[in-house]
Specification:
Layout lengths: L6 H5 L10 H13 L1
Length: 35
């Protein structure tokens, strides 16, 4: 699993202005729990 911990890593994600929306983590958790 990829951990996004630093602002530089977060800024690499398209559509994010430095702070990823909660939906990102929610969808990740759902995929992990289903897998």
């Amino acid at each position: 699993m990829v951990e996004i911990s630093s602002p530089s890593e977060i800024s690499k994600v398209p559509g994010n202005a430095g702070e990823p929306p909660p939906a990102v983590y929610t969808s990740l958790l759902k995929m992990l729990s289903l897998d």
